[in-house]
Here is the input.
Amino acid sequence: MLVRAAQTRVVVFPELSLTGYELADAPVVDPGDEDLAPLQRACAEAGCVALAGAPVAGPAARPSIGVLAISAAGVRVAYRKLWLGAEESDRFDPGTEPQVLQVDGWRLGLGVCKDTGTRRHALDTAGLGMHVYVAGLVMLPAEREEQRRRARSIATEFGVFVAFASFAGPTGSGYEQTAGCSGIWDRGGATLADVGAEVDQLARAELRATMPGQ
Here is the structure.
């Protein structure tokens, strides 16, 4: 429903959006899982790429917190979270490298929650030539201003657009309430679109190229 309502080329969802932030119990999602077929059909009909969060197979024995890229072309693991919280490390392994996803010539740098507060992550991802930094997050209501600060900091330091999809409403692992307030920022850190803390809201903006190839 959200993919169809968004009417955009790229739709970004929060961290572990397909399972909820259940660190101990969330199942590992295989890109070939038939349960993803309705989402893939919606992406095909809308002509969009959805970036959805889920536990995925990791680089070693344990799973990772991943980002699935879902489109008419299929489903694949596009990124594995590099910087894990302490409780996340009890079950998950970090990914091995930063990633960018190319969509229509735009290079999307991918992040997940704690990545956004780690300058090294944005620096290494920027080194891959990103135009937009996109991330899914799960944060507390008290961290809303920190969430906005991170977005503005990344935008202004690296000269990129930023899109944060932040979980709204209750989820697992002690998050009875979450920050919500997803948003999109321009290269100067100005807000292009934002929403409140209620569930099922969409922050939507059209990003316009200002440089050759962007």
The chain has a mean pLDDT of 96. The helical segments are 2-6, 37-46, 119-126, 144-158. The beta strands are 10-12, 49-56, 64-71, 74-80, 100-103, 106-112, 132-137, 161-166, 183-185, 191-194. Residues 183 and 194 are 4 Å apart (CA to CA).
